[in-house]
Predict the 3D structure of the following.
Amino acid sequence: MEKKLREENFSPERLKKIRSIMMNRDVSPFPEGQVLEDALCLAFLEIKFEGYIPEWGEDKYIRILQNTLVKMSEKAKGLALTISYSPEGHTLLQKALVS
């Protein structure tokens, strides 16, 4: 991919930025990286979040949710609260938010 981007005249600085985002390294300096992180976390919460409830104990589940939430911007956390969860999923999310 990098070769193709170089062929398209992307600057070395832009390539470094893209590489960092794609490798999921420290994305915080890049607004695009935070948007990507927010999208990935929101997709997890909306699509996969509740599928793991039967597999994981409450402590593990809350820890994973906390690790997900810490990666998210405040705006994305607000959006996460608008997703429709089961009562059990909602309770686990609330516990992760207050812990």
About this structure: The radius of gyration is 17 Å. DSSP finds six helices and no strands in the chain. The CA atoms of residues 38 and 75 lie 9 Å apart.
